[in-house]
Every structure is written in C-alpha cells, then in structure tokens.
Amino acid sequence: MAPYTQLYVHLVWATWDRLPLIAPEVEPRLYAALAEKCRALGCQPLGIGGIADHVHVLAGFPATITIAKLVGELKGASSHLMTHELAPGAFFKWQGAYGAFTVSEHMVSTVVAYIRNQKEHHRDATTLVAFEMLGAETRTNAEQ
C-alpha cells in the first residue's frame, strides 16, 4: 500500500537582484515548464504565477521529495529553459534563496487565487506580506 499524504507547499523565489527578467511573452511557456517539472517529480501543480521579478508555485507534494529538492529542480529546469530556449543570449538567473510555506487544505483555493492574480495584487498594492516573503537574500542592493 502506498503512503497517503496531503501536503501542500507555497513556494516563492525571485530573479537575480529582483531584476524584471520575466517578460510577459515568456510567462506561459515558463509556467507550463514549471508545471511539467512538478508533475515529473511526482508533485501536483495547483497554482503558478508571478510578475517580472518573481514567481509563486503552489504544489501538492508526496513524502518522497524534499522541499529543497523540489525548489532546486524547478529553478534549475526553468533557468535552463530561459537561457537556452526562451531568451537565449539574455541574462537570466534566479536568486539563491526562496520562501516555502505549508498550506492547509482549506486554504488551497485562497492561495491559488492569490497566485493567479499576482499582477493585480502588485499593481493595486494588495499583496499579502505573508505570501511574498522571500528572505533577506532577495532584497536588492538599494533595500539593504
């Protein structure tokens, strides 16, 4: 019998120095690649979104993978895609840090809606600090 888990994690990570490196025209393919990589790792992508300088991923994940491995694989695959297919020759790099937050089952739909509406939240200054925390390493030089 396979183990049963009901684990959800909200991941957030930023581009290098919070530079606006994710152009709108590459977002659909970038987000699709993140979803595909999630599935390849045995995870269920539930929500993926972001803005030019960071991404959010909500995924259901099994007990067979660590959060660090999941994030490392997602960042690695998406960085490779950006530098080799979507924006070859252009500078692209993720920050080393990331935020990871567990999400209860009853909050999944709230977090999915938040992730899908990133552009509006940032435009309208309605972001939720608890969902945007990325760690000290993601601050730009001007913020430090």
Description:
The chain is α+β, with helices and mostly antiparallel strands. The protein has one domain (8-139): Transposase IS200-like (Alpha-Beta Plaits). Helices cover 37% and strands 18% of the residues. It has helices at 27-40, 67-86, 108-116, 118-123, 129-132; strands spanning 8-14, 44-51, 54-60, 99-102. Strand 2 and strand 3 form a beta hairpin. The relative contact order is 0.24. Mean pLDDT is 86; it is low at 136-144.
Write the layout of secondary structure elements.
Blueprint: E1 8-14, H1 27-40, E2 44-51, E3 54-60, H2 67-86, E4 99-102, H3 108-116, H4 118-123, H5 129-132
Antiparallel strand pairs: 1-3, 1-4, 2-3
Helix pairs in contact: 1-2
Name of the CATH homologous superfamily = Transposase IS200-like
Oligomer: single chain
Strand numbers in spatial order across the main sheet = 2-3-1-4
Mean pLDDT: 86
From the alpha carbons, calculate the radius of gyration and give it in angstroms. 15 Å
Number of domains: 1
Let me know the number of strands.
Answer: 4
Poorly predicted segments: 136-144
Task: Characterize the main sheet.
Answer: 4 strands, antiparallel
Reported CATH architecture:
2-Layer Sandwich
Q: What share of the residues lie within helices?
A: 25-40%
How much of the sequence lies in strands comes to 15-25%
N- and C-termini, Cα separation: 51 Å
Q: Which term fits the overall shape?
A: globular
